[in-house]
Design a protein that fits this description.
- Helix 2 runs parallel beside helix 5 and helix 5 packs antiparallel against helix 6.
- The strands form 2 sheets. A 4-stranded antiparallel beta sheet has the order 4-1-6-7, with no helix packed on it.
- Among the domains are: 78 residues, 434 Repressor (Amino-terminal Domain) (Orthogonal Bundle); 75 residues.
- It has 269 residues and is of the alpha+beta class.
- It is elongated and about 85 Å long.
- The protein is built from 8 helices and 8 strands; from the N terminus they run H-H-H-H-H-H-H-H-E-E-E-E-E-E-E-E.
Length: 269
């Protein structure tokens, strides 16, 4: 007797999450409120457009959070995503081999170019009449110096005083123009958190590798980034956070797991 097909056999991870959400009669806006994940990120996840999400580590985090809200075991979904969409180590190895081959070709081209330059230089010296005959080791070579190279003796040198150069005054407008040409400094954003209750936190900053923290009450943590901070927390109410000195609203319901992105301009997705 043929076994009925399971959703996991015919649907992608994103498709299974979408079917489960629609089966519960939940809209994307409802799901965004429950998970504290932006609607645009949930749409990209359900459509398996993983390239629109920050990083593979972040995709795994929102799959877990979304699956828990919908009552689905997150482990199999994460495994299927890793097998089908996450970059493979083999691809990275092939890319590394390609870089090695490219480096070898570049080295060979430089070697050929050096030989051509040397040959061209030797031919140029021969055409100009220079004697390129090698001299045996230990043999002294004598050559007459041109008369122009022998200068008559000079009397005691006469020192000429150098004129004193007084720097011209710089106008205020010129000072402003110099300051305006200074290289702009990239602005950094600082996210600070005070831990109120025990929790585990996974943090991703600007596509950098994720970092896992086991936090306890009283801990104070600080991160510096340029574009965004992606947090996956086992307890959304376990911390009080501020960005660049401005307090942030609660990142989710107290006691509930959440995944949230805080952008550098203070938006929460």
């Amino acid at each position: 007797m043929t076994q009925p097909a399971r959703l996991s056999d015919v649907l992608t991870p994103g498709g299974e999450l979408r079917v489960a959400r629609e089966g519960r009669g939940m809209s994307l806006d409802d799901a965004a409120r429950e998970t504290c994940i932006g609607v645009s990120y949930l749409e990209a996840l359900e459509a398996d457009r993983y390239e629109q999400l920050p990083s593979p580590a972040y995709v795994k985090g929102i799959i877990r959070s979304y699956a828990r809200i919908l009552g689905i075991a997150p482990g199999p979904l994460v495994d299927r995503y890793a097998q089908g969409a996450e970059p493979k180590e083999e691809d990275e190895e092939h890319a590394g081999r390609g870089l090695v081959l490219l480096g070898q070709k570049l080295w060979l081209q430089l070697l050929i170019m050096g030989v051509v330059i040397c040959v061209g230089y030797l031919l140029t010296q021969r055409d100009a009449g220079h004697d390129l005959t090698p001299v045996p080791a230990g043999q002294m070579v004598t050559a007459a110096l041109p008369l122009q190279a022998i200068l008559p003796p000079r009397s005691s040198p006469v020192r000429v005083a150098s004129p004193t150069v007084v720097p011209a005054a710089v106008s205020q407008s010129e000072e402003l123009s110099v300051e305006s040409k200074a290289t702009p400094v990239t602005r950094k954003s600082v996210l600070k958190a005070k831990i109120l209750s025990p929790c585990q936190l996974t943090m991703i900053i600007d596509d950098m590798p994720s970092q896992l923290y086991d936090l306890k009450p009283g801990d104070q943590v600080e991160w510096i980034g340029e574009r965004y901070f992606a947090l996956e927390m086992t307890d959304a109410g376990a911390m009080e956070a501020e960005l660049n000195g401005r307090p942030l609203p609660p990142l989710g319901k107290s006691g509930a797991a959440t995944t949230v992105v805080v952008t550098a301009d203070g938006q929460i997705q």
